[in-house]
Design goal:
Chain A has 278 residues and is mostly helical. Helix content of chain A is 73%, strand content 0%. Chain A has 11 helices and no strands. Chain B is built from 11 helices and 13 strands. Chain B has 316 residues and is an alpha/beta fold. The relative contact order of chain B is 0.13. The chains are: A mainly alpha (278), B alpha/beta (316). The complex binds adenosine-5'-triphosphate and magnesium ion. The site of adenosine-5'-triphosphate (ATP) has 12 residues of chain B, from strand 2 and helix 1.
């Protein structure tokens, strides 16, 4: 072997150190990278996802609430206690939609980190899954912060809040999944997300029993209510905090959100693949 | 690193047969055949839009082929994309570094996607920053780095998994001469250690320096293939006489010199006379009272091959 040295140096086989990891580990690795980014930029993020809903709660619950004396729908609780669960849901959904919109489009278009990632063993589907899990993690942090702070206001009536937090996060995930799919097919500069917030998320928040019960709305508005994931989330979260929902409707609300999550995930995986593998 | 493992694998690292890539109605790669052997440095040359990057992206398993067959490291990208990507390194034509992370973090985070341990990527990042001469910028964000530094970082990132094949799409575009020479030296070292290099370039000196073998692509097809010297021999004469004129006036002299050379190429400000002995040709040109602003005798280069094959200059 030692005779043919020059040729040998040229043909010494190289063995790459990279390997393919399983899908869960792949998603964990991607989330780890997102975490190292978040560690540098968490302050700016915290305001929009954690503090904003709290400001809302303070202004609406305490300020406006002082004017809503013994509203017939309150039935013995304060207005603050009435809207604390639903503001949790709408705050979480707003964060979910924001996180699933512009940052995702940026991953394809401006920051292009998605393009970089799919040149590694990570697949577009794993990238999608990791991004969704990451959003769920972020929503959970926001929910806990909100939950604790609202407790200081005395906004919770009992331990039901411990169920309300995951339910709100679940509602957020059900909204994030399809919005990520939408972001992956968006071509423009991201104006679509402004429209989405203005014409979809905002009406959904208003026609969802966030600030007052939906039976106060005129009849023709009800179909809008039924398709609002925020309403389904509100109903569930109010049920566990304030009670008063029988099992069958509760199941219906949950199924609506599950269907939205699953459909969104299928569409999202597909649209991530189609955008990245060209 | 286990680069010293015994055994020699001489099967082709990449082999393509009738490889095609179609985007909607446009076919960017129209059926090409080539093989790249292990340890070889293989170049793809061609004018803008020739299909070089499209080909590279198919090899990198980031873009599915639309026709033909392709094997990378013996596997089919269609079915084994992740397994292939785990063992290759990719440097895309446009950098997609994470501008908001530091140099070190870019290398470490990218390495994690290859299943490498934290300790491993920590050491690897240090080694690669040394390699790319970015050690003193280790903990700076990427955004404010110069274009050339970003390019070097992109190349270093492509090496994070000790790839067996490194794909470089125009690696030195935008680098200053010193950085280019540094990079050539580094790439040469990689090649010495057995890494297969596949690169595209618009610089013929780069192709001559680095590539054992290259193909010239034009319009989605391979129009020539060979070693740099072989291509020059096949497609050009030994020497070239360049006659420089005021731009626009050069065409007047074509008929006067045409029969003195095997071939005359007309450029905007020059005539190129392809001949075996350019000095002798120069003498005969002056006998005919053709008075160029200046004239130059030189050896043929890949640039001449390129001009002959594609009708275009290498850098446009
Ligand atoms: N995603 C895409 N969709 C549609 N057309 C594309 C796409 N990518 C490349 N093309 C087209 O395919 C052709 C070949 O492009 P490619 O990038 O492979 O060329 P290239 O040889 O790398 O050129 P350059 O030297 O300019 O980098 C071009 O005409 C380009 O417009
Ligand atoms: Mg290109």
């Amino acid at each position: 072997m030692a005779t043919d040295t020059p040729r040998q140096t040229l043909t010494t086989p190289v063995r790459a150190t990279g390997s393919v990891v399983g899908p869960w580990r792949a998603m964990a690795l991607r989330m780890e990278v997102l975490w190292s980014w978040y560690r540098r930029y968490w302050r700016a993020n915290l305001y929009s996802s954690g503090l904003q809903p709290l400001l809302f709660l303070g202004a609406m619950g305490l300020g406006l609430g002082s004017q809503v004396k013994d509203g017939s729908f309150l039935g013995g609780i304060t207005y603050l206690q009435y809207i604390a669960p639903s503001l949790l849901v709408s705050g979480i959904v707003a964060t979910a939609v924001n996180e699933a919109g512009h940052p995702v489009l940026s991953g394809f278009k401006w920051k292009q980190d998605y393009v970089a990632v799919v040149a590694t063993p990570i697949t577009p589907q794993q990238l999608y899954g990791a991004q969704l899990l990451w959003i769920v993690l972020r929503l959970s942090i926001s929910a806990v912060i909100y939950g604790l702070a609202a407790a200081l206001f005395g906004a919770w009536t009992g331990p039901g809040v411990l169920l309300a937090l995951p339910l709100a996060v679940f509602t957020g995930a059900a909204c994030a999944a399809p919005v990520m799919a939408f972001a992956a097919v968006t071509r423009g500069e991201g104006h679509a997300f402004v429209a989405l917030n203005r014409f979809v998320v905002l009406p959904m928040t208003l026609f969802a029993g966030t600030f007052f019960p939906v039976d106060r709305l005129p009849g023709p508005c009800l179909p809008l209510v039924w398709i609002s994931p925020i309403w389904h989330g509100n109903e569930l979260v109010r049920a566990v905090t304030l009670g008063g929902l029988s099992p069958l409707p509760a199941l219906g609300h949950a199924l609506f959100l599950v269907a939205m999550l699953v459909t969104g995930m299928l569409a999202g995986r597909r649209s991530f693949y189609r955008r990245l593998v060209i | 690193m286990s680069r010293t493992e015994a055994g020699f694998d001489d099967t082709a690292v990449v082999s393509a047969r009738g490889l095609k890539k179609r985007f909607d109605s446009f076919e960017a790669v129209r059926g090409i055949d080539f093989e790249v052997a292990r340890g070889e440095a293989f170049g793809l040359l061609g004018p803008n839009g020739a299909g070089k990057s499209s080909t590279m992206r198919m090899i990198a398993c980031t873009s599915p082929r639309t026709g033909g067959t392709l094997r990378v490291l013996g596997m089919d990208p269609q079915t084994h994309g992740p397994a292939i990507r785990a063992r290759i390194g990719t440097v895309p034509q446009t950098d997609n570094l994470d501008m908001e992370l530091t140099v070190r973090q870019n290398l470490q985070t990218y390495g994690r996607y290859f299943g490498l341990s934290r300790a491993h990527v920590r050491d690897k990042a240090v080694e690669l920053m040394e390699f790319a001469r970015l050690s003193d910028r280790a903990d700076d964000e990427v955004q404010p780095l110069s274009g050339g530094m970003k390019r070097r970082l992109a190349i270093a990132r492509g090496l994070v998994n000790d790839p067996e094949v490194l794909l470089l799409d125009e690696p030195t575009t935008g680098l200053d001469p010193q950085a280019r020479h540094l990079l050539w030296e580094r790439l040469f070292r990689l090649k010495q250690s057995g890494v297969t290099l596949i690169l595209t370039t618009h610089y013929m000196d780069e192709a001559e320096q680095l590539c054992d073998r290259l193909v010239v692509m034009d319009g989605g097809l391979i129009v020539a293939e060979g070693s740099p010297a072989g291509l020059i021999e096949q497609y050009s004469t030994r020497e070239v006489l360049e006659l420089r004129f005021h731009p626009g006036t050069q065409t007047r002299y074509v008929s006067a010199v045409e029969d003195l050379a095997e071939r005359v190429e007309v450029l905007p400000d020059r005539l190129l006379l392809y001949t075996k002995n350019a000095d002798a040709t120069a003498a005969r040109v002056s006998e005919r009272d053709v008075r160029p602003l200046s004239s130059l005798v030189r050896r043929s280069t890949l640039e001449d091959v390129f001009l002959r094959l594609t009708g275009r200059t290498l850098v446009d």
